[in-house]
Every structure is written in structure tokens, then in C-alpha cells.
Amino acid sequence: MSHQTRGVTTSAAERLIRDAGLRVTAPRVAVLDAVHAHPHADTDTLIRAVRSDLRVVSHQAVYDVLRVLTAAGLVRRIEPPGSVARYEARVGDNHHHLVCRSCGAVEDVDCAVGEAPCLTAADDRGYAIDEAEVVYRGLCPRCRGAADPAAHPAADLDPNGS
Questions:
Q1: CB-based burial, 57-77: b 16+ in 10 Å, e otherwise
Q2: pLDDT tens, position by position, 97-137
Q3: Domains detected in the chain
């Protein structure tokens, strides 16, 4: 029997875990589901999500499962500059990320050009490059709107109201 939780069906999560050669456990299923349901979530967010499913699970258990799922290629750990580690279920491609300088929001963005590794190093120094990590930083639309004086016409008025 399969039921839909927040991200993937339990049977789909179990199948992914089993296909990766791992033993299926309730914490592994719950963590994988939480990563699917909360893209780019930090560990604390994932712990809260897992606890909403399992009620009792230790921080260490979630950390251990994340490490196992990452090593198995079922989740990807990213560390945008200035941010804690985050996890995502989008694996198997070499996509990049947009990071808001103000609120810290993270979004996926496909490669800028070509096939992985997306960018060709000017001098590979003999390395066999198979991945390029690019982080685009700026302001997300919500934060841009908050910072844009045109979005707040009253801000254009002088103190005398003229």
C-alpha cells in the first residue's frame, strides 16, 4: 500500500532507497520525503518536518540519514556562501542556484551554457572536470520590491508632504 505524504509517495521513497542499495527504514523514508517536500531546506527545517511524521527522532539520526542519502546520490548537499548547509532532491544534473542576498531564498537555475560541467575552465591544470558549481547572488523579486522606492510611492514624498 502506498500513501502520499508531502513530497513523494512512501512506496516511491522506499523504491528510491532500495534502488540505491540501502535498507529501507522509517527515518530514511521520512527524511527523503522531507527533502522532496522542502527543496533547499536546512537541517533544522528537515528535522521539524521529519518529526511531524515520526514524532520521535533525534537530531543525530537525521544528520546520519542525510549523510547516507547524500553519499548514495539520493539528495544533494549545497552550501551557498554565507549560508548553512541545505539539501535538495534534484540530483543527477549539474544545475546551479540563485541566492537572495537579503532573505536567503534559494532557487534552482539550469546550467548557463552547454552540458555538464556547464563551464569550461580557462586552464583545467590537468583536472578531469565533471562538475561546476555556480551561485548567482542578488535580490529575489520579493526583496527587490521591498527595496524599490517605486514600489512605495509615499517614500518619494518629502517630510512636508509635497
A1: beeebbeebbebbbebebbbe
A2: 899 988 888 999 887 665 555 667 778 888 888 777 788 89
A3: 10-78 (1.10.10.10), 93-145 (3.30.1490.190)
Alpha helices in 1-156 (DSSP H): 10-19, 26-37, 43-54, 59-71, 141-147
Of 95, 1, 120, 101, residue with least CA distance to 39: 95
pLDDT (tens digit, 9 = 90+) per residue, 60-101? 999 999 999 999 999 999 998 888 999 999 998 878 889 998
Single out the residue of 43, 72, 78 nearest to residue 57, CA to CA.
43
Strands in 76-78's sheet, in edge-to-edge order, are 41-42, 86-88, 76-78
